[in-house]
Fold this sequence. Notes:
homodimer; mainly alpha; Arc Repressor Mutant, subunit A; Tetracycline Repressor, domain 2; 2 domains; elongated; DNA-binding
Amino acid sequence: MIPKAVDTKTRILDAAEKLFGKNGFDATSLRDITAEASVNLAAVNYHFQSKDSLIDAVIARRVEPVNQRRLEMLEAAGENPTLEQLLIAFLQPLMQHDFSVVYPLMARVLATPDTFVTHLLKRHLGLIIERFGEAFGKALPEFTETQIRWKMHFTAGAMAHVLSRAYMLPELMPDTKFDCQTALAELVTFAAAGFRAKEGI
Amino acid sequence: MIPKAVDTKTRILDAAEKLFGKNGFDATSLRDITAEASVNLAAVNYHFQSKDSLIDAVIARRVEPVNQRRLEMLEAAGENPTLEQLLIAFLQPLMQHDFSVVYPLMARVLATPDTFVTHLLKRHLGLIIERFGEAFGKALPEFTETQIRWKMHFTAGAMAHVLSRAYMLPELMPDTKFDCQTALAELVTFAAAGFRAKEGI
DNA sequence: GTCTATAGGTTGATAGAC
DNA sequence: GTCTATCAACCTATAGAC
């Protein structure tokens, strides 16, 4: 249950974020959300116009700060950042959230191929892909633009999979306690080597 | 529309596979499926007992041959397979399907964190993860079991992302025609380097 | 095996009182 | 801004005729 201390609009956003992440966008009804938020059903259509608008608002609230932080870290890395600096700037702002409610939501967004969610994703991620694409290309001038895109695509996929399957990682790795620092470090090591790898199959 | 040449049960499976992949499990109603298959609504509950059973059947029909092929290729690689051989044995049976209807369905399965689908996934993938985990560990004895699992996890995520975002790859890579041979080759190169990478962040 | 008909329940959205 | 009440549409599943 979402505490009553905050206002109705925020309670709806909090409840929707939690349930969208947990059960998906289609499987979560507005009634589920208003019950979780302890607000009236009609409040959703008053504060947001429709379920799609609500989905948009829920996603934007979390994605925008992450993307802002990514661009900040990209800029802070200077004129000629290392590959590892670029990977951390791209991955860390999302992967630092640890076990918060943000994880399942972002995993849903990344893993939902539906046109509406994909449209939102493109809108939010267009600039990021462009900027980081340039930066990766500059750091690794020996690769074509297409190869750089492939490598970014694989890295994003690995990250998305860590988020979306975070809950089953402890099961896959019995002797380790799962934490995001470790996941990030392992992923940066893995992706950096993958980025530098030359074709030779 | 699914041609009338095949029997009702197969037509339902074909239609369900197509629509589940395209719109997701929750968003696809039995009515959508029976309309696409040109069969009566009640036929679904006659041939399969419930929607969940149908989902199970749709997934099993595609996953089982892929997993069988994986184990065949693993065995065919002999006693001491190279890392590249292992990666190809794991990735190729799924990635060779090219633009068929199988892609979106498998992408859905891999990207749906819901308990029911995850349960199916575990049931179908348990043996594969175990066998390949052993093989990767044997090929790279300098890493701990947990590190091997991380690397497998990243590789699976990259593959899943290629499948689930296959339709937007041409857009990301304007100057290349997307094909699965290229995707597989790029992914094997990327993942092989990632597998061999030592911690050093 | 295939059909019609329908039960019984859910959904998103809105109208209108307060 | 918040509520109750309700609409029209949709859903899964089943009963029973053919």
